[in-house]
Amino acid sequence: MDTLTIAGTTYSSRLLVGTGKYRDFDETRRAIDASGAQIVTVAIRRTNIGQDPSQPSLLDALPPSQFTYLPNTAGCYTADDAIRTLRLARELLDGHDLVKLEVLGDPQSLYPNVVETLKAADILVKDGFKVMVYTSDDPIVAKRLEEIGCVAVMPLASLIGSGMGILNPWNLQIIIDRLSVPVIVDAGVGTASDAAIAMELGCDAVLMNTAIAQAKDPVLMASAMKKAVEAGREAYLAGRMPKKVYQASPSSPTGGMIGS
Q1: Is 124:159 a contact under the CB 8 Å cutoff?
Q2: Strand 184-186, strand 152-155: pairing
Q3: Residue 77: what are its φ and ψ, rounded to 5°?
Q4: 62-71: buried (b, 16+ CB within 10 Å) or exposed (e) per residue?
Q5: Residue of 21, 100, 119, 216 marked active site
Q6: Which of 17, 70, 99, 236 is the most exposed place for a label (fewest CB within 10 A)?
């Protein structure tokens, strides 16, 4: 069976899904179920997982006994804020150490601040966290994050929430070729074909939120994304035929034809 391994734990699904932007926790649960995702991300600054006992908690809709939680630092713009947020998450989730680090550069583009990201990653790894890290599609930065000790590197396909798909497949390919930890496309996926392309390139997984949550039918889109990731992975493993520019090749052999 083809599986994904992150920080020593094996998963059958290569689709990771965020839990924000849905109408309510019921829709969140139905979409997650349709996606087949086993790892779900949660923005500690925006989602209640026990911080406010008087409000509904995501923990009730998505019990940690059934899903692997991936607390993230969405909304953090400095290394210090990100570190503080993940330490809080570890307390709220009883010592949970698998986390997603993202340190943003500005509120308009939400592009990663790689300088602060590198700083935070180094401190968090030394503090015992298993860090999955959102970053730019810079191969040098990606390699440095692996060297620091991050358990997965997550380059963007395009800007968070943009739905623009993969804008620079060449950089992603370099990152995939050079890193030994899982490479997970994070941010910018808009529809199923984007997810399939990421997997065909050789990415180990795809993480998405807006593409599902903001679809007209989130549950149906979640199902489509599940199939796209599976199809893209199978195509990658199968090995595509070579591209032949200005050269046709008949599907049937021409040798031995009747009358030849």
Answers
A1: no
A2: unpaired
A3: -120, 0
A4: beeeebebbb
A5: 100
A6: 236
**Quick one: which of 179, 94, 83 has its CA closest to 123?**
83
> Which pairing describes strands 4-6 and 9-11: parallel, antiparallel, or unpaired?
antiparallel
pTM here is 0.89
Q: Which residues of 13-51 are buried (b: 16+ CB within 10 A; e: fewer)?
A: bbbbbbbbbbeebeebbebbebbbbbbbbbbbeebbbee
225 burial level (CB within 10 Å; 0-12, 13-18, 19+):
buried
Write out the chain's pLDDT in tens, 260 residues. 789 999 999 999 999 999 988 889 899 999 999 999 999 998 887 777 767 777 777 888 888 889 999 999 999 999 999 999 999 989 888 888 999 999 999 999 999 999 999 999 999 999 999 999 999 999 999 999 999 999 999 999 999 989 999 999 999 999 999 999 999 999 999 999 999 999 999 999 999 999 999 999 999 999 999 999 999 999 999 998 888 877 766 666 656 566 65
